[in-house]
C-alpha cells in the first residue's frame, strides 16, 4: 500500500467511528487519500452527510495526527494494518461498507494466519462459576486442537476464555473497543499484557482512544467476521453477546450456544438462540465438528452403563424373572425367563457369583447388595455371564 494511503487510513481511524458505512462507501468510491484530503482541507461536505455531521468530522480532523499515531504503535512494538496488507484477514471484506478502515495490532502472531482457524467465545460479563468453567474448558480444548480463541477481553466469559487459552499456551486474540495501549477493564491489565506477549490485541480505535457503549457494539462485528463461528457460552436475554451472535448469523458464520440451567437468567439468552437458530454445543470437539474441515468429527461419548447392561442376554432374562421383593423357586424363574430349569440354574449360578442374586434354601431372590456389586462389576470389567 502507498504510504500516503496508509497515512490517510491512520488519520481516518482517529476521526471516524467504527462501522460507519457512509464513510465506507466514500472509501470505496473516492479512496482514503481523497476522503482525508477533503476533511483536512475543510472542503465541502461529501455526498450523503448532513452539515452537522460534516462539521463534527471536521472538528475531529483538526486534532488528527496520523504520523504521531503510527509512531506510537511502533513504540509499542505493534503495527497498523490496512486492506491489501499481507497480514490483513480477507474475511473482513464480508462486512462490506462496515469493514474496518484499518486495524491497530500488538502481538507476535500474524492476524491473517491465526484467523484462518479461529472461533469466538463470548458471553455474559457477570457470569456464573458454571459459565466461567465452561468457557475456560472450551478455550482449552480448542487451543489443544490447533484453533485460535477470539474474544473481547471483558470481565466474565471473555476473560475466562482468554485465560483458558493461555493456560495451554494457545493463541488467543482480544478485539478491543479502545486503543491497544489502553487497559480496559483496568483489572485486566495483566491479562492484556499476557495476550500481547503470546497472541494479539486488535483494535479499530487509534492508540489512546477510550471505549464507549457504541464502540463495544461495533467491536462485536469484527469478532464475528474474523472467526469461522461464534459460541455464546452464557448470556441473559439482553446480553451484549447476543449482538455478536446476530452479526455472526448475518455473516453466514456458524452460530453455537451452550445450554445452562433453565432456572438461571444468565442462560436465557443462550437458550433462546438454541430454539431459534444456534446449534447446541457442550465441548470443543463438537465446535470443531461444525467449523472444521470435512471429517473433523466429534467422537461419540460413552453411553452410561449399569451393571446389568453388561450381562449376556440369557443371564439378563433370568435376572428379569426375579421379583423386586420376595423369593421364587427355580421352576417359576425358568417359566418367567422362558427357558429350561437347567439353563435357569446355570445362569442363576453365574448371577450369584457376580453378586446379583442369592439362594435361600430351594428359592432365589435379588441380592440386597446388588447396587453395590454393580459398581464392582463395572470397575473390574466383569459381567460376561
Automatic annotation (TrEMBL):
Domain Smf/DprA SLOG stretches: 80-290
InterPro entries the UniProt entry points to: DprA, DrpA_SLOG
One Gene Ontology term from the biological process aspect of the record: DNA-mediated transformation
NCBIfam families: dprA (TIGR00732)
Family under the similarity heading: Belongs to the DprA/Smf family.
Protein name: DNA-protecting protein DprA
Gene designation per UniProt: dprA
